[in-house]
């Protein structure tokens, strides 16, 4: 793929710095470039005179990754830093290391490998044998100390890094680190990004808040990045002013888990409207039915309402801890349509604890009402995935729905959508859901499986479900028994991380959720 021209590219002389940092993102270029952490780290590290940072993206398995800036490979760098959003990044990450001719396991003669991001901040254990240092939580409060220690070479590095809060090494524990005050936390301003055109679009990424306090019991983001914090309106105005000057774009992508919970949300949208910016926002809060807000969104160019009802059943939503009624949902859908939005995207999950077929019966009425409100069936987009138990959440002890139940409930969803003329219905392959649950809650056995997967890929496997099947067969396992929820009384692998949400709270939330729906056997 030909890469686009980029703005704010930094190319430094490798001989004039003490630290050469390879920022590696195990997904393709466009996915990586939409990630604020990539832009932030690139800027923060390159701002330091003693260091340089160059980017690497995943292209395909067994292909030696090359730096965007210099075309060099990973062996020319002192440190390889991986930003890991998702458990599905793990095999691509290991392949990027191995394809550069670097031993994937820690120890020995190789560049230092450091990793951070939501997936490993929640549960780093599957990657412990492969990573020298993890950043558990948010990097900004410790970035200066980390770069300082890394620039002093590898002698005694383990000991020196052990003094930095939030840094985890194999055999030790670590506390989670987070930025207490976002107004005092650097925001990427001189963002590296592709220039508009050539099939790429350029936007300024704006983080208005971080974390979410709503406590949905399946949400890893919520429990890993607590508490919710906001950037002040004044700070956001300054960031926009400077950021737009350096990035020369008129489009803003707002990034936040709880965007609509910001206490000045209408002012932020009005500010962007006043500056005549185009903007896009994350999924909407369903309790938000303020007409003015929708008008502001439409004025900013937002054409699609994105919302995650998760289920048509209010009873199941209560179990999830995501409390809103179908009437509230329909009110949001109606107001968005009145304001002029053209399409709606709805996210659902199957396999919520306590779910039965009868819980799905309200689907037809719900979607039918969305159509009668004025959204045409071709403009309704439905995504349905299995509910995936994730580490560090109350649902880490929940089972994943069985394959046949998932398939039968999915076909029910598809049939209802088809009867209503809704054709855009998507779902992930069930087996990827099982893999995610396994890696998110896994311990040493997950590391072993990842090492076997890497060998399969090195021997020509494509890292797809075929690779997983071969490896599982070699272990006498299958997708049916890959993910086994941990017992509620057992220690969890990721308890090596301190300062997360107390386990007692997670247990309390899990027990509240399943209550009478599961019966008394949950402590088995
Ligand atoms: S509202 Fe969204 S981000 Fe917040 S806890 Fe629920 S699912 Fe997570």
Compact description:
The protein is of the alpha/beta class.
Indicate the radius of gyration in whole angstroms: 23 Å
Assign the CATH class of the largest domain: Alpha Beta
CATH-level-4 superfamily name of the largest domain: tm_1862 like domain
Please give the count of helices. Answer: 18
Structure notes:
- It is a single chain.
- This protein is of the alpha/beta class.
- The protein folds into two domains: 170 residues, 3-Layer(aba) Sandwich (Rossmann fold), CATH 3.40.50; 249 residues, pyruvate-formate lyase- activating enzyme (Alpha-Beta Horseshoe), CATH 3.80.30.
- 36% of the residues lie in helices and 15% in strands.
- The strands form six sheets. It has a six-stranded mixed β-sheet. Strands 15-16-17-18 form a four-stranded parallel β-sheet, covered by helices on one side.
- Helix 3 packs across helix 16 and helix 9 runs parallel beside helix 10.
- Iron/sulfur cluster (SF4) binds next to helix 7.
Secondary structure layout plus pairing:
Blueprint: E1 6-7, E2 19-25, H1 29-33, H2 36-46, E3 51-57, E4 79-83, H3 89-99, E5 112-116, H4 118-122, E6 133-135, H5 143-151, H6 157-162, E7 167-168, E8 174-175, E9 193-194, E10 204-207, E11 209-210, H7 220-224, E12 229-230, H8 233-247, E13 251-255, H9 265-274, E14 278-280, H10 291-299, E15 304-310, H11 314-320, H12 326-339, E16 343-350, H13 363-373, E17 380-386, H14 403-419, E18 424-426, H15 430-441, H16 444-458, H17 465-474, E19 497-498, H18 503-518
Parallel strand pairs: 2-3, 2-4, 4-5, 5-6, 8-19, 10-13, 13-14, 15-16, 16-17, 17-18
Antiparallel strand pairs: 1-9, 6-7, 11-12
This protein binds iron/sulfur cluster.
């Amino acid at each position: 793929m030909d890469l686009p021209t980029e703005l704010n590219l930094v190319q430094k002389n490798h001989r004039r710095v003490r630290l050469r940092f390879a920022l590696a993102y195990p997904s393709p270029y466009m996915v990586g470039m939409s990630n604020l952490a990539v832009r932030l780290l690139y800027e923060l590290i390159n701002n330091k005179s003693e260091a340089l940072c160059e980017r690497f993206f995943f292209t395909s398995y067994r292909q030696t990754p090359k730096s965007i800036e210099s075309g060099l490979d990973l062996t020319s760098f002192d440190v390889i830093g991986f930003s890991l959003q998702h458990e599905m990044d793990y095999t691509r990450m290991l392949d990027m290391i191995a394809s550069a001719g670097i031993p994937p396991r820690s120890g020995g003669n190789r560049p230092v490998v450091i990793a951070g991001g939501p997936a490993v901040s929640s549960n780093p254990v599957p990657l412990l044998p492969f990573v020298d240092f993890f950043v558990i939580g948010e990097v900004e409060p410790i970035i200066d100390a980390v770069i300082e220690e890394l620039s002093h070479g590898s002698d005694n590095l383990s000991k020196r890094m052990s003094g930095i809060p939030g840094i985890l090494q194999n055999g030790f524990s670590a506390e989670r680190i987070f930025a207490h005050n976002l107004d005092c936390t650097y925001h990427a301003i001189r963002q590296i990004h592709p220039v508009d055109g050539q099939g790429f679009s350029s936007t300024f990424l704006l983080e208005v808040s971080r974390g979410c306090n709503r406590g949905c019991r399946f949400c890893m983001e919520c429990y890993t990045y607590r508490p919710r914090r906001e950037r002040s309106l004044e700070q956001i105005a300054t960031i926009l002013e400077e950021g737009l000057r350096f990035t020369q774009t008129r489009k803003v992508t707002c990034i936040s888990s709880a965007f609509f919970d910001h206490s000045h949300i209408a002012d932020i949208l009005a500010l962007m409207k006043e500056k005549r910016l185009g903007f896009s926002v994350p999924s909407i809060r369903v309790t938000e039915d303020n007409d003015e807000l929708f008008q502001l969104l439409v004025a900013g160019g937002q054409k699609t309402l994105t919302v995650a009802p998760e289920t048509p059943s209010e009873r199941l939503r209560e179990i999830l801890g995501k409390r809103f009624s179908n009437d509230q949902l329909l009110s949001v859908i109606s107001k968005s349509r009145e304001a002029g939005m053209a399409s709606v995207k709805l996210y659902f999950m199957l396999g919520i604890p306590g779910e039965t077929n009868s819980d799905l019966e309200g689907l037809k009425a719900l979607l039918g009402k969305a159509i009668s409100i004025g959204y045409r069936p071709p403009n309704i987009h439905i995504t349905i995935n299995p509910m995936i138990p994730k580490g560090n959440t109350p649902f880490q002890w929940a089972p994943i729905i069985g394959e046949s139940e998932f398939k039968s409930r999915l076909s029910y969803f598809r049939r209802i959508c088809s009867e209503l003329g809704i054709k855009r219905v998507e779902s992930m392959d069930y087996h990827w859901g099982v893999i995610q649950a396994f890696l998110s809650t896994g311990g040493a056995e997950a590391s072993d499986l990842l090492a076997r997967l890497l060998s399969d890929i090195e021997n020509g496997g494509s890292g797809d479900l075929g690779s997983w099947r071969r490896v599982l067969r070699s272990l006498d396992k299958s997708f049916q028994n890959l993910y086994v929820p941990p017992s509620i009384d057992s220690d969890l692998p990721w308890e090596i991380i301190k300062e997360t949400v107390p386990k007692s709270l997670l247990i309390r939330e899990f027990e509240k959720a399943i209550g009478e729906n599961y019966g008394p056997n949950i402590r088995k």
